[in-house]
Amino acid sequence: MTTIAEFMTTDHKSCDDAFAVAEENALDGDWGKTETAFNAFRDDMARHFRMEEDALFPALLSAGGPSGPVNVMLMEHEQIRGLLEQMATAVTQKNADKYGGLSETLLIVMQQHNHKEENILYPIADQVLASECAALLGRMQAV
């Protein structure tokens, strides 16, 4: 059976791959491809956040899991959403310098965020939610 950590880490990698495609297109100066790839990446991130915010985090908290790490992740989600909005503006403006700077910042934030989730939050979730893991994964996949 797949664990929450395995499932969500795989989704992180998928989001990271989409991020890299958008960045590559921006570096090439192909703004049509950049817009398409960036929108796909932003949609992937929105889906990932919905899986956590609508299914994983509520389940973890209702089962008595720690609220501190969840609250930190929620704050970081808002930070990431803000960066994504700024990046979308840079794409619309075809502003390579702005996009590049924001992309570097987002990469650092995502790496730190993913590290905390993959090494702290998801293992806690696997422990606390072991008895409902299959059902929870089903709800997350349905997002």
Please write out the topology.
Blueprint: H1 4-28, H2 31-62, H3 67-93, H4 96-128, H5 133-141
Helix pairs in contact: 1-2, 1-4, 2-3, 2-5, 3-4
Structure description:
By secondary structure, the chain is mostly helical. The protein has a single domain (4-141), classed as nmb1532 protein domain like (Four Helix Bundle (Hemerythrin (Met), subunit A), Up-down Bundle). 88% of the residues lie in helices and 0% in strands. The longest helix is centred in the last third of the chain and has 33 residues, at 96-128.
Give a short overview.
With 143 residues, this protein is mainly alpha-helical. It contains five helices and no strands.
Principal-axes geometry comes out as elongated
Whole-number tally of structural domains: 1
CATH top level is Mainly Alpha
Q: How many helices?
A: 5
E-strand count: 0
- Which structural class best describes the helix and strand composition? mainly alpha
- How much of the sequence lies in strands comes to under 5%
The third-level CATH topology is: Four Helix Bundle (Hemerythrin (Met), subunit A)
CATH superfamily: nmb1532 protein domain like
